[in-house]
Write a structure and sequence with these properties.
2 domains, seven-stranded parallel beta sheet, alpha/beta, Rossmann fold, six-stranded parallel beta sheet, 15 helices, globular, 13 strands
Length: 380
């Protein structure tokens, strides 16, 4: 069995490619990332095909023109590049990322390949509806998901042989929109437990520090988080790491921010240190196919509080190795955070259980092993 991976960006494709290469079944990793950037992450041995000009446009195009137009252009051009490259491919399986694989699917099928669409979020229609509702609740007028992207993804879902998603929440969203459950494969993501680990000495903050990592946006549940934190802000500190969504800035200006610090975008090393300096982690998203930051926090020994829309909840037993609260329920979120703020023993117990969960089941090797078994099942 040989597998070809095609991804417009990075996502978790680099870890997947590295693992498949170790097993001797990767034909090629095809990405918009420039070769030097890929090599820096996964070494010099993985066979590569790159389209760096598309990555430049993906990153800097939105500064010059409409972001939606950039996303559509990159998706179509990358899929066409993948389709062209398949003429020299002998792979059995093409694993392509959603919205940027459509033009390659018929070419792959003509060569006898199976096509798997990787979708790290919920069904595109579900995601679009949840984001629109989250923005509307705050009076935010934001550009909707481009209709052409939605159309492309829907066609990919129908044309591919299988859809790989990271959580049961994501799988359920596909079933609700009419995709047969047997076409959907759930493979939870992994975390590098050698990179994310608890601090060597216990954290000693003047007051408990709650950490959020992600885009400061309606999608990530920042409004209910700030509302919930306002009720307990005299007893704790909230640190938010990540860029502010331009559409969210006006709404953010109206939200309570006492004892809240916004750190902006951080390097990978600085984020690692942010986890180690925190006492509690929170991700109260409106829509989240998985949420790798949850695993990073758990691997760092933090108790986590997430909304019931976060796919990583598959790995959390409420009250045992984390807490799960209803999305947009400020009272429930505030109560959960307050319990942890006031009870150092509970923080320690949930953090230790979270760490044990990541150590036992959530490395990237396990993710790759499950992916290979699923690929074999799809081929058969």
């Amino acid at each position: 069995m040989k597998v070809r991976i095609a991804v417009h960006g990075r996502f978790h494709a680099f870890e997947l490619a590295q693992g498949l290469h170790r097993h001797g079944i990767l034909e090629c990793l095809q990405t918009t990332y420039p070769g030097f950037a890929v090599r820096r992450v996964i070494g010099n041995q993985v066979p590569l095909a790159t389209a760096p000009l598309l990555e430049l446009w993906r990153r800097f195009g939105p500064k010059l023109t409409n972001r939606a137009a950039v996303n559509v252009t990159v998706a179509k051009k990358f899929a066409a590049t993948v389709a062209s490259s398949l003429k020299d491919s002998n792979a059995d399986i093409l694993v392509g990322w959603s919205s940027a694989t459509l033009e390659a699917i018929p070419v792959a099928h003509d060569k006898g390949m199976r096509v798997i669409i990787e979708r790290g979020s919920t069904h595109i229609s579900h995601q679009s509806e949840m984001l629109a509702a989250a923005n509307e609740s705050l009076g935010i007028i934001a550009a909707p998901t481009p209709g052409e992207i939605i159309e492309r993804e829907l066609m990919e879902y129908d044309a591919c042989d299988a859809i790989m998603v990271p959580s049961e929440i994501a799988a359920a969203s596909f079933v609700r929109y009419g995709i047969p459950r047997e076409k959907i494969y759930v493979n939870r993501l992994g975390v590098d437990v050698s990179q994310f680990a608890p601090p060597r000495t216990p954290v000693s903050n003047p007051v408990p520090k709650i950490l959020f990592v992600g885009e400061i946006s309606a999608r990530k549940g920042i409004a209910p988080l700030l509302g919930a934190f306002a009720k307990i802000s005299s007893a704790a500190e909230l640190v938010c790491v990540g860029p502010v969504d331009v559409d969210f800035q006006a709404a953010l200006n109206k939200l309570p921010i006492k004892n809240v610090t916004f750190k902006g975008t951080m390097s990978r090393n600085d984020i690692h240190q942010a986890y180690q300096s925190a006492d509690i982690f929170c991700l109260p998203s409106a829509e989240e196919g998985f949420g790798m930051v949850v695993l990073e926090a758990m691997a760092s020994g933090l108790p986590v509080v997430i909304s019931d829309q976060v796919g990583a909840g598959d790995l959390i037993t409420d009250g045992k190795n984390g807490m799960i609260v209803p999305y947009n329920d400020e009272t429930a979120l505030s109560n959960a955070l307050l319990r942890l703020v006031e009870n150092a023993g509970l923080r320690s117990d949930l953090g230790a259980a979270a760490l044990a969960t990541t150590n036992s089941a959530l490395g990237w090797d396990g993710y790759v092993d499950r992916a290979i078994a699923m690929y074999q099942n799809i081929l058969n």
